[in-house]
Amino acid sequence: MFYNLIDNISLQFFSELLMIIPGILEIVTTVLFFIFVLMTIAFATLVERKVLASMQRRRGPNMLGLFGLLQPFADGLKLFIKETVLPKDADISIFLLAPIFTFFCSLKIWAAIPFSFTDYQTFSLNGIIYLLIILSLSAYGIIFAGWASNSKYAFLGGLRSTAQMISYEVCLSFIFIIIVMLSQSIDFIDIVSMQIHCWFIVPLLPLWFIFIVCGLAETNRAPFDLPEAEAELVAGYNVEYSALTFALFFLGEYSNIVAFGAVSTLCFWGGWLPFLNLYFIPDFFWFALKITMHVFVIVWIRATFPRYRYDQLMKLGWKVLLPLCLSILFIVAFIFLHIDKYCAFMY
Fold first, then answer.
1. How far apart are CA 255 and CA 123, in angstroms?
2. Phi, psi dihedral angles at 222 (to 5 degrees)
3. 39, 94, 28, 81: which is closest to 251 by C-alpha?
4. How confident is the model at residue 229 (pLDDT cuts 50, 70, 90)?
5. What single string gives the DSSP state of each residue in 252-301?
6. What average pLDDT does the segment 171-190 reach?
7. Can you tell me the mean pLDDT for 304-309?
8. Least reliable range by pLDDT among 25-29, 155-159, 165-169, 334-338
9. How far is it, in rounded angstroms, from Cα 263 to Cα 106?
10. Which of these, 215, 160, 170, 162, lies nearest to 322 by C-alpha position?
11. How far apart are CA 236 and CA 142, in angstroms?
12. What does the alpha-carbon distance between residue 291 and residue 277 come to, in Å, rounded to a whole number?
């Protein structure tokens, strides 16, 4: 009887353990993916500084580690051990919430980005809609930061950045509508599947250039880094932030840059599909290579073009890019309508 009791307890223990294991594996996978994203962001900062140094004929980071590979960790440690200064008249709770919210939104984008045909992310099925929702929510972090700092410079920078992000989200929405029309799906995996024979970059090359411009404005990158115009607003919405709170804004910006490269790769460059049918090379290699190409282009643009004025930025978004996106949308819809009529006539 005693042995039967021990056997029953053992069976119950192992059955409960087997029920817990999938949850534990999911938590471990999430933590590992979070670490991977943080490492990617850290080395994206190093890539930017190295590429800028090469283009401007200087050395760049080269003291810490081989070729300066430990520089991102040194920068992170420096920001972590510095003192966080809180403005006297700021709304402290919202002031501290703003960088956390911004960083959280930048990480949530990765929940919809698959890395292969078998990698079904949490929100990949409704990837386009989920991405637009996160882009809309991310503006609130900047609004919170500019308002809660109780500084006119930060407040004006927050207003500028918010207006900029909202303006260019309209163009991004029309671009995503065109991609959805071509792929007949809002799932990123289906969008990549439709590009097996022809990547969307071939028929939609002008649209990709518009997407790059909108992405630069959406991530507040040069030449559209108007919230950080030193001559006017010092550093914009994050002028009152320091140490770890500033690091969260910094990490959020670079996470958005890498995620923007990933979305552009999925929508225009065939995602993880290989060049020249080289299928023996793993999918993640091609995906990472295309994202790196986008990051290089973004850094290249920063090193090349001067900063726009704010009125030029708004004019470009509302009077140039928006009519272009609408024109391309109408052309694609017109072509689809006549193709459907032609197919119905033939069959």
1. 18
2. -60, 140
3. 39
4. low
5. HHHHHHHHHHHHHHHHHS-TTPPGGG-TTS-HHHHHHHHHHHHHHHHHHH
6. 89
7. 85
8. 25-29
9. 13
10. 170
11. 10
12. 19
Residues 6+ apart with CB under 8 A from 236: 146, 153, 154, 157, 158, 160, 161, 226, 227, 228, 229
Q: State mean pLDDT over 199-207.
A: 90
Q: What is this structure's pTM? A: 0.86
Cα–Cα dist 306/304, whole Å: 7
178-185: long-range contacts (C-beta < 8 A, 24 or more apart)?
178/204, 178/207, 178/325, 178/328, 178/329, 178/332, 179/128, 179/267, 180/128, 181/329, 181/332, 181/333, 181/336, 182/332
Residue 21 CB-density burial (10 A; 0-12 exposed, 13-18 middle, 19+ buried):
exposed
Q: Which of 190, 69, 204, 40 is nearest to 124 (CA)?
A: 190
pLDDT mean across residues, the chain: 82
CB 37 within 8 A of CB 256: no
**pLDDT tens-digit series, residues 53-89:** 988 888 888 888 788 888 888 888 888 888 888 888 8
d(CA 217, CA 210) in angstroms, rounded, equals 11
Q: Give the whole-angstrom CA distance, residue 192 versus residue 125.
A: 13
- What value, to the nearest 5°, has the Cα angle with vertex 231 and ends 260 and 164? 35
CB 232 within 8 A of CB 152: no
